[in-house]
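Appendix B, record 7
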Amino acid sequence: LILVPSYIEIGCFGFSKSILKDVLANHKYDFDPAKVKTYIKECAELAFQKGYSHFALGLDGNCLSSEHAEKEYFVKKGTKPQNCKDGIGSKTSIDVYTFGESINTTVIVSE
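Structure tokens (predicted):
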């Protein structure tokens, strides 16, 4: 079992393909708006397993991160919260998260 700590949403930021190049999950062809919370949890699990401190969800719930995500996600600057709906970004935005205290509970993941 892997204990994944809780995570908190940092906010909505502009997106560029030059940042957060590690695509941890791609839901382009099976995206379901009703599963957004599942995509966020999945992304948290995948990022934590790789040792990443930050992760983001972009268009269609795609999970993005990188080894230096904490230095990259804000490069394109913050954007309007409306550009990130229900916890995910759009074609030009990402919704960024980090691990820490929040109302979310710790998730136990089986390997």
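Remarks on this record: The helical segments are 36-49, 69-72. Strands lie at 2-4, 7-14, 22-25, 54-57, 63-65, 93-99, 107-109.
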